């Protein structure tokens, strides 16, 4: 049995680092494991300008302190008012790596999101021309659609016309949760890829209702039934360069989760790599872990692979019940469970 695994330093292609005290509390978990991360822009207010992204990047680096070997890759939150020239200039300057499309009201802090793709057609046109990736929260917001169907319906109603109208637009469908999305991404004749979270590889929707309401298993897109979890697992370990690591780690203070209207989001950053490796190990696919964690994403984004390596060792580690305290107390994913692998050193 493999006891140690050394891979090229990985990246997290989708993370929420938050701001203020929470940023200070959580940024280190991501930076400890990952060389780079695509940082989500859904702050309050959202990151819509080059100046805001530059400032946010500086706050992330300040939170990590001197000597951190971590590069935050910033994203622009698209609104109906998004301006192609601003976005292209931010990309050219190296501030905006990508743009994030939240359908308005799809999830946490998405009230300013896009109400109609037609409103951002000039932006998408320009992104397509300059090769700037579009990152999509792929759920319809139509409340008449069952919440468990919102991703699959998005593929038909929004994504299919989108790739028809912008045939060269590079797209990352974020945090896929369904068999339909896995097949769509694997088979599309289009430059499209998908990120996959640890939670969608490990839990199905039963976890949200396991003996009572479990707010810490609730995120968006919500976990689906078992057949979908298995399809997403197959995609992750398939070796296809279209699937790569994106944790969607989304911390909320414990009181905001354990509430009459608990926030969506699972905080998986502290043991993200260990959790993914558990899945690859269970699937007998450890040899495909490096591609998923450290290569496919960088290649899709057209960025260099990271120099250097990290090592994981088969030594048990128990996830704590909480991390942080007070305004930064968060219950991590798999709290109290023991994982077989841990990051060495
Ligand atoms: O569960 C989620 N939490 N899904 C999202 O899309 C946003 C995120 C957050 O920011 O909390
Ligand atoms: Zn997210």
Order of helices and strands: EEHEHEHEHEHEHEHHEHHHEEEE
Hetero ligands = (4S)-2,6-dioxohexahydropyrimidine-4-carboxylic acid, zinc ion
User: Any idea of the CATH topology?
Assistant: TIM Barrel
| Main CATH class | Alpha Beta
Number of domain units? 1
CATH superfamily: Metal-dependent hydrolases
Widest sheet: strand ordering? 2-3-4-5-6-7-8-9
What is the CA-atom radius of gyration, in angstroms? 19 Å
On the 0 to 100 scale, the average pLDDT is: 97
List keywords for this structure.
alpha/beta, eight-stranded parallel sheet, binds zinc ion, 34% helix, globular, 345 residues, three-stranded antiparallel sheet
Structure description:
- It is an enzyme of class 3 (hydrolase).
- It catalyses: (S)-dihydroorotate + H2O = N-carbamoyl-L-aspartate + H(+).
- Pathway: Pyrimidine metabolism; UMP biosynthesis via de novo pathway; (S)-dihydroorotate from bicarbonate: step 3/3.
- One of its GO terms (cellular component) is cytosol.
- The protein has an eight-stranded parallel β-sheet.
- Strand 7, helix 6 and strand 8 form a beta-alpha-beta unit.
- The protein has a single domain (4-343), classed as TIM Barrel (Alpha-Beta Barrel), CATH 3.20.20.
- By secondary structure, the protein is α/β, with parallel strands linked by helices.
- Helix 1 (20-33) packs across helix 2, helix 3 runs parallel beside helix 4 and helix 6 runs parallel beside helix 8 (226-237).
- It has helices at 20-33, 50-64, 84-92, 121-130, 150-165, 179-187, 198-202, 226-237, 254-257, 272-282, 289-301; strands at residues 4-8, 11-15, 36-39, 71-77, 96-101, 134-136, 171-173, 192-196, 243-245, 309-313, 317-318, 338-339, 342-343.
């Amino acid at each position: 049995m493999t006891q140690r695994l050394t891979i090229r330093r990985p990246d997290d292609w989708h993370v929420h680092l938050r701001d203020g005290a929470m940023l200070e509390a959580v940024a280190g978990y991501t930076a400890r494991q990952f060389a780079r991360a695509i940082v989500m822009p859904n702050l309050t207010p959202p990151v819509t300008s080059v100046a805001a992204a530059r400032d946010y990047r500086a706050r992330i680096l300040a939170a990590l302190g001197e000597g951190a070997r971590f590069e935050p890759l910033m994203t622009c939150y698209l609104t109906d008012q998004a301006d192609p020239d601003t976005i292209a200039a931010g990309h050219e300057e190296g501030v905006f790596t990508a743009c994030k499309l939240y359908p308005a009201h799809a999830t946490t802090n998405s009230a300013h999101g896009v109400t109609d793709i037609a409103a951002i057609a000039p932006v998408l046109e320009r992104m397509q021309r300059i090769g700037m990736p579009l990152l999509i929260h792929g759920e319809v917001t139509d409340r008449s659609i069952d919440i468990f169907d919102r991703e699959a319906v998005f593929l038909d109603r929004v994504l299919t016309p989108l790739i028809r109208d912008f045939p060269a637009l590079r797209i990352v469908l974020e945090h896929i949760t369904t068999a339909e999305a896995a097949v769509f991404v694997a088979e599309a004749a289009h430059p499209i890829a998908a990120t996959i979270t640890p939670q969608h590889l490990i839990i199905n929707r039963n976890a949200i209702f396991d003996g009572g309401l479990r707010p810490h298993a609730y995120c968006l897109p919500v976990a689906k039934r078992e057949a979908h979890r298995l399809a997403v697992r197959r995609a992750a370990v398939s070796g296809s360069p279209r699937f790569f690591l994106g944790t969607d780690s989304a911390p909320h203070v414990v009181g905001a989760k354990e509430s009459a209207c608990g926030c969506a989001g699972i905080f998986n950053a502290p043991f993200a790599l260990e959790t993914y490796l558990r899945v690859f190990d269970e699937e007998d696919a450890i040899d495909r872990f490096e591609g998923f964690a450290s290569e496919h994403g960088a290649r899709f984004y057209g960025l260099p692979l990271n120099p250097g390596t990290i090592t994981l060792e088969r030594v048990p580690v128990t996830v704590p019940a909480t991390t942080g305290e007070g305004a930064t107390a968060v219950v991590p994913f798999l709290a109290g469970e023991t994982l077989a692998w841990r990051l060495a050193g």
